[in-house]
Amino acid sequence: QVQLVESGGGLVQPGGSLRLACVTSGFAFSSHAMNWVRQAPGKGPEWIATIGNGGRITTYTDYVQGRFTISRDNAKSTLYLQMNDLKPEDTAEYYCQQTQDARQRGRGTQVIVSS
How far apart are CA 22 and CA 3, in angstroms? Predict the structure, then answer.
């Protein structure tokens, strides 16, 4: 059974940082490119970043480029998202997802950026 479980969300002040983790099981994690996606209240899903299966190739949406870093530890079957200089507009539910099969995703972790 494929499982993806996010953690690390919370309430943070503008300018702060959070590190999200997505622990996976039930599939060959090291063979899959992975995404982080977010969904703000009342809005549709927004792709944030993708990392290749080996971890060397990464791409980001322009809005988070330079502030967020996607990474992975294939030995731990875990995906990460380091988020720095957070802004109120980053408030959303964040979830991880297989790049090739969007149905394989976690339930998400809530990030709230507010003073």
Answer: 10
Closest to 19 measured CA to CA, from 87, 88, 80: 80
Residue 11: per-residue pLDDT:
98
The answer to whether the beta carbons of residues 91 and 9 sit under 8 Å apart is no
pLDDT, average across residues 20-44:
97
Using CA atoms, how far apart are residues 53 and 14, in angstroms rounded to an integer?
32
Mean pLDDT score across all residues of the chain: 97
CB 81 within 8 A of CB 69: yes
Retrieve residue 10's tokens. 């919370």
DSSP calls for the chain: --EEEEE--EEE-TT--EEEEEEEESS-GGG--EEEEEE-TTS-EEEEEEE-TTSS-EEE-TTTTTTEEEEEEGGGTEEEEEE-S--GGG-EEEEEEESS-TTSB---EEEEE--
Taking only the tens place, the pLDDT of each residue in 75-89 is: 999 999 999 999 999
